Amino acid sequence: MINFNSPGPVAPSAHQVVAVPTHISGIQFLENFLHSMRACGGYDICIVVNEYRNEQKSAFEKALRDFKHLPIRLILLEGNHGEYSALHSIINQTSYEEIFLLSHSCEVVDQGLFEIVFGSHAGKSIALSFVPQFLPAMRSWTSFLGKYRRAILSKLDLEHYLPQNFFESCVAEFWFTDMYCRADPSTLCLFPRFVDSYKFRHKFGKERMVIENEYLIKWKSHWTLEMVFEQMNKLGHRLPTEKEVVNYLRKYSQASPQFQASALSALRSCASPVEVEGGR
Fold first, then answer.
1. How many CB atoms lie within 10 A of CB 270?
2. How is the chain split among helix, strand and coil, in percent rounded to 5?
């Protein structure tokens, strides 16, 4: 089931999938997530690996070797499009109709979550929560988490908004998900209180923000624009130019001049590279 030699299109017979975008820097989180999945209700799991390189094969094989009982499929990507990569690649390379996006930095506490999302709310778009500081003007999804439908995604120009770096992925988290809600006004909010808690615990070598309820835990490593650019530096990624920041924000009519000013200020503060560090 887990095949690194055939990373191209998959043709599943099922119409519902759990999508997990990941990256080599977050491989500990990926293992932790899969340990929490147990049976996952029998739903397919599609792991989308951003910025995959052949030399990473042994690391991912080791990470996945204990999960042969899970219905895992892989999509390996050359570029890094963040969480958005799961939506873009699954729409273009599979026939799944409902895509439940969960970050590799999630832990499933109660397997009943899948019955709620895929069973009780079949055929419905679901945001696990909305970013509260943007309400009521915008319905941005917390960390992209939730269930998307092909019928709605197909109405949006996924190629036009495709992020090319970590910063753009974070921007898409706010404004692409709001656009999705505008395309599907009936989108449900499943857990209104599943939002940034500013509670912290130690996980994989550092203090991280934790969001949790009786069904799910989400570990957050970044919650400011400065932290986003600092992580790009740590991973050795090229920071965007100011022109690139402005041009990407122009794709979203909702992006305010205040947000643009904050983004440019954060970029300028992180201009010097810092020591490379794993984790995401």
1. 19
2. 40, 20, 40
* Domain 16-194 top-level CATH class: alpha beta
Distance of CA 159 to the CA centre of its chain: 17
pTM higher than 0.85: yes
Determine the residue type at 38. Answer: R
Tokens matching residue 84 = 């958005």
CA dihedral (25, 27, 32, 35) in degrees, to 10, reads: 160
d(CA 280, CA 274) in angstroms, rounded, equals 15
pLDDT of the chain along its 280 residues, tens only?
456 654 444 444 479 999 999 999 999 999 999 999 987 778 999 999 999 999 999 999 999 999 998 999 999 999 999 999 999 999 999 999 999 999 999 999 999 999 999 999 999 999 999 999 888 989 999 999 999 999 999 999 999 999 999 999 999 999 999 999 999 999 999 999 999 888 999 999 999 999 999 999 999 988 889 999 998 998 888 999 999 999 999 999 888 899 999 999 999 998 764 433 333 4
Helix (H, G, I), strand (E, B) or coil at 242: helix
For the chain, the domains span 16-194
Beta-bridge mates of residue 148 = 99
Residues listed for the chain: 280
How far apart (Å, rounded) are the C-alpha atoms in residues 21 and 36? 16
Q: Which of 137, 10, 24 is nearest to 80 (CA)?
A: 24
Residue (of 259, 266, 166) closest to 224 by Cα position: 266
Please give the Cα distance from 237 to 247 (Å, whole number): 19
Name the residue among 174, 5, 42, 32 with its Cα closest to residue 118. Answer: 42
CA torsion angle 3 56 209 263 (round to 10): -110
**H or E stretch covering 219:** strand 216-220
Instruction: Return the structure tokens found at 132.
Output: 């509260």
- The token duo for 274 is 């810092």
